[in-house]
Amino acid sequence: MLIEGSFTIAAPQARVWEKITDAGLMAGCIPGCEAIEVVDPKTYKARVKVAVGPISARFDLVVEVTEEVPPERVVSVTRGDEGTRASVVSAENRLELKATEDGATEVVYASEVSVTGRLGKFGLGVMKKKAQSLSEEFVRNFRAKVEMETAS
Amino acid sequence: MTGPRLVRPATLDAALAVLAEEPDARCLAGGATLVAMMNAGLAEPGVLVALDGIAELRGITVADDGRVRIGAMTRHRETAADMRLAGGHAVVRQAASVIANAVVRNMGTMGGSIAFFDPAADYPPALVAADAEIELASAAATRRLAAREFFVDWYTTAIEPGEMVTAIHLPPAGTQPSIYRKHARTSGDYAIASLALVLDGAGARVAVGACGPVPLRSDAAEAVLAGRLADHDAVAEAAALLAAAADPVDDVRGSADYRRRLIPRLLQAAISELLDTREAA
Predict the structure, then answer these.
(1) pTM, whole model, 2 decimals?
(2) What does each C-alpha distance from B276 to B268, B279, B280 come to in angstroms?
(3) Which CATH number fits domain B178-280: 3.40.50.300, 1.20.1250.20, 2.160.20.10, 3.30.390.50?
(4) What is this model's ipTM?
(5) Which of B13, B35, B144, B177 lies most in the core, judged by the most C-beta atoms within 10 Å?
(6) Does A123 sit within 8 Å of B42, measured CB to CB?
(7) Considering only CB atoms, which residues of chain A are within 8 Å of chain B?
(8) For residue range B242-270, what is the model confidence (pLDDT) as tens digits?
(9) Distance (Å, rounded) from C-alpha B105 to C-alpha B179?
């Protein structure tokens, strides 16, 4: 399923880039992110908990950056599983930062996500709605952190 | 692998005490959904609190003033067969009668169904249109919530940890008719889209099912319908408002676009059938 969207943030492109590549800050913005670890500059590990109604899952994810063009674009691949459990998630992610005329930054994101295993039995339609609402929550968190710092 | 520990309390208080002590406990009502979820590895409760031994959770009572109390453990079959659910309450009986198949209706319960809250299930729109209230109990307190507030988001209700659904209350209904209409791929499947409609004065309360995170009601659409139920333009306008407010998913049962297109058909069919019923009466 394709999860995509864009949002504008009242901060210059270079600052948004700096924040978006700050693993610690990102961990605090990603809904359900319990831990994040920088393995090397191109590889991150994260543990993320997701719940939809009665179902909850904890994924161990590895994010590998496959293309990085500061301060404009990051392309990455995410793979993860539920530990001993049968669900496997993978995603191809693309994130672009564009400076706007008034000095703000437009962030455009798209992820092609696939989920197989036990969670694949759950309705994909609802999962997509959930993913969209998690994206919106991330945007709110991220915007709050970056704009707060820019203002101070 | 060990399964959950099963407890089978004889009283509501005993059940609530287990829910208060065991964060990993889940109520087992009819098992129509929960057991299937456990078999699929989607739910793994540590403790199952079987509710079938608790007499106070069973059965339907109708008060002299017309108020109805449906115990959470009332099976769909009992609800579907209870002809006291007439007039404005018929919508709930009709919804019960089209849930899944006879085997599921023999086992499944109203409390279990709404606590799981599949967005395409039949009771949620019927209860919202009927202005039902959901009674919730924990070891500490009992409270009642309007159905509209009970259903919160996809598969999410207002039930707090330690709480369970104990009953569903319907306000006095009067004699005006009500109807539940469901469009499904085959008899017994979850709805692609459904619609519950209760005539109310010169207007109607309408709730659309399976077309968003919660049963959809639109004050604007109901305002358009007030006094103009027999007016095709008004019905079309109300249907357009409902379709625009819907937020359906794309899934195996149908695309979001298809679901939106079903809403006007369901509304027109429900209203014309109810008006015919009212004229015949």
Answers:
(1) 0.90
(2) 12, 5, 6
(3) 3.30.390.50
(4) 0.76
(5) B177
(6) no
(7) 52-55, 85-86, 118-119, 121-126, 128-130
(8) 999 999 998 889 999 999 999 999 999 99
(9) 19
